[in-house]
Amino acid sequence: MPVITPQEIKTQDIDALAVRVFLKSLEMIGGPRKLILYRNLTWIPSLLEAAYSVVLSNEYLKTESEIAEFLGLTRQTVRNILRADPELVMKKLEGELKEKDLKAHTAGGLAKLAYQEIKEGRDHLTIFADLVIQSSEALGITWPIEVLRRLKGIDFPVTKDVLLKKLEGIKIQDKSMEELLEKLNYPIKSPAHLLKEIRINLENA
Q1: Helix or strand or coil: residue 171?
Q2: DSSP state of 175
Q3: Contact (Cβ atoms closer than 8 angstroms) between residue 59 and residue 118
Q4: Cβ distance 58 to 48 under 8 Å?
Q5: Minimal CA–CA distance to 51: which of 21, 16, 9, 15?
Q6: Longest dimension (CA), the chain
Q7: For 43-54, how does the pLDDT look when each residue is reduced to its tens digit (9 = 90+)?
Q8: What is the pLDDT of residues 66-79, one digit of tens each?
Q9: Which of 2, 55, 67, 134 has minimal CB crowding within 10 Å?
Q10: What pTM does this model have?
Q11: Residue 184, phi-psi category: left (phi > 0), alpha (psi -120 to 50), beta (remainder)
Q12: What separation in angstroms does the CA of 157 have from each of 120, 125, 163?
């Protein structure tokens, strides 16, 4: 197998997905405020390293050695991250939250779970919503703001019945939300998936 240099890896867009995995990991342990509560902010670098390791391994099929060179870690640390047992980590996480240091296998288990959640469409709604709202306001497009505001607090994937209740009364370009929801492909896996489905239906109307 040809060896890809760290510089070559940098040319690919891994940062966005690694950051999403990192943010999802933070969400799963209770958010940044929980780290502050336990005074263990040193967890953040370890979670970032684990997020990049999981993304490089799963999305780009990089070896432990390649990932270690790219991130400046030892090969053993990368191995501990990638071989972490997510279920075991979640069982012991509450106890480890009270410790200042985050073990590689714990960070790896969290990152692997977060990666799985993202791949299954359960992304971080609040952060995603904030980004879309800022973009929508800048472009003068308001319907995504109202849709995301009403979606807060619901779990994905979501059915049409749930969306009908949550989004009742919204109108987009003279079309009722009820009319638009009838034409979507279900189940809707994430807020981003929903906005994309609505946009496609509006363009094809």
Answers
A1: strand
A2: E
A3: no
A4: no
A5: 21
A6: 59
A7: 888 888 999 999
A8: 999 999 999 999 99
A9: 2
A10: 0.64
A11: beta
A12: 8, 12, 11
